[in-house]
Amino acid sequence: MNRHLEPGKIRWKPATKQACVDLANELKSGVFTNQQLIDAKLDWIIDKTGCFGETIPLTLNRALQDLRNLHELEFLGNGQYRLLNWIPTETITEIEDIIDKIEIQEPVQIKERAKRKKSHAITKINNKPLLDLSKVGEKVDMQVVYTTVTVKQRRNTDELREQTLANYEGKCAICGFDDKGFLDSCHIVPVSQNIDIAGYLANTIALCKLDHYLFDKGAFIIDENLNLKRTSIELSKTMQAWLDNLPDKISPAAKIQLNKDFLQSRRELVEEVNYLIEE
Question: 53 and 164 share a domain?
Fold first, then answer.
């Protein structure tokens, strides 16, 4: 094996990552097998890295493991992998248009339902203490962050956002996207439902803008085991493709974990608008 990188060649990890992306684009699916990668892309990887020899399969396996460790690839078992953060090439332009139009807000359906009838989840939060909040974890003072509930004049949201992003190591907890300008602090229980818990980091999660949009829309919930559970909401073809390629579990890396009662309350809010949640 060549120990030194030859001029014009790249290392195994970036070469393998690009090969996975190219294969996913060809298959029009972020899920593929190790054998499919070998059959379709191994010669290309060898050419790009300039590496030859009997240990090529071991080197490929190490590169795949490195990508898993970086949360860029997920092993599904039986030789199958899922490429995280993969977007079909034909949908990239459409997604860029969607991003330009996204204004993060609470789901319209939940807002309208809340006007007609207080949900069981809202009543439960407002009328009964869920737990001793002193044990939930760190909190940003919401008297400063939100001056009033009615007009939602937000101040010092940068502080809450910075702390939330730091809690998730500067990455989206679902897809792993790490461009800071594309990340939000997302509330599990919406601020409009209970301002008292809005500032707790156990009620906030770092999400990229697309995952934040889908979460607020009610496209999925997060259960107490941090599994991502999709709902029956109808989405555009583009957003459905994005949702389908998300991992089935969020990152457990947060120092302050999401509170289980808050997650259950979010589930009840979504169920109140009659979305079916996968089991």
Answer: no
The structure's pTM equals 0.55
Alpha helix stretches (DSSP H) within the chain: 12-27, 34-49, 56-69, 92-101, 108-116, 120-127, 142-145, 157-167, 209-217, 237-244, 260-272
Instruction: Count other C-beta atoms under 10 Å from residue 174's C-beta.
Output: 25
Task: Among 37, 66, 86, give the residue marking a domain's end.
Answer: 86
Give the residues of the chain that fall short of pLDDT 50: 1-2, 103-135, 142-155
Q: Is 61 left (phi over 0), alpha (psi -120 to 50) or beta?
A: alpha
pLDDT of 150: 33
Domain carrying residue 204: 93-272
- The residues, any chain, with a CB within 8 Å of residue 120's CB and separated by 6 or more, are 268, 272
User: In angstroms, rounded to a whole number, what is the distance separating the alpha carbons of residues 159 and 161?
Assistant: 5
Cβ neighbours around 38 below 10 Å, total: 15
3-state per-residue secondary structure call for 218-238: CCEEECCCCEEEEECCCCCHH
129 and 217 co-located in one domain: yes
- Token pair 């004049």 in the structure block, residue: 153
